[in-house]
Design goal:
Helix content: over 70%
Radius of gyration: 17 Å
Largest sheet: none
Distance between the termini: 57 Å
Number of domains: 1
Shape: globular
Length: 176
Amino acid sequence: MIKIRESILTPFAVSMIAEVLIFWIVYVNKGQPEYVNSFTEIQPYISSIFNAISALFLILAVRKAKRKDIITHKKFIAVAIGASALFLINYLYYHAVVGDAPYLGPEAFAKPYYTLLVLHIMASIISLPLIFITVFLGITDQRKRHRTFAVITFPTWLLGSITGIMVVLFNKLISA
């Protein structure tokens, strides 16, 4: 029998390496302004589309799991993971080119924006290792442990996806 600490160590370690890379690209890297172009202007919206697809398929996947339709559940989770992976690739490329993206809206909206941004960042930081672990447990057919983690992973991942959309819309629409 695999012990839980042994079974989740590898996905946890991989997610921590990913978190460090993400932090460096977004907050330490100063960007490459010479590569900013019309594509980088629309990338936040593309990220929002990937987040919306992820959120939708997460909700659908949980509904299928509750109805014991595990085959469809796995397919919907695969779509959610794929959309989240595409989001992350797009997001990292954007920040590698642009660097940190400051809030450009009116001062009156700065506090709600930063509150939303912090909630998004915290949900994203927490959800990444949870996603890796939960998927690993599902793939290795450790259903009881998978369900235990999924109860925490689902709302955290969903919160990260939805607040990601809100951050982009808030920053882009209010500062327009």
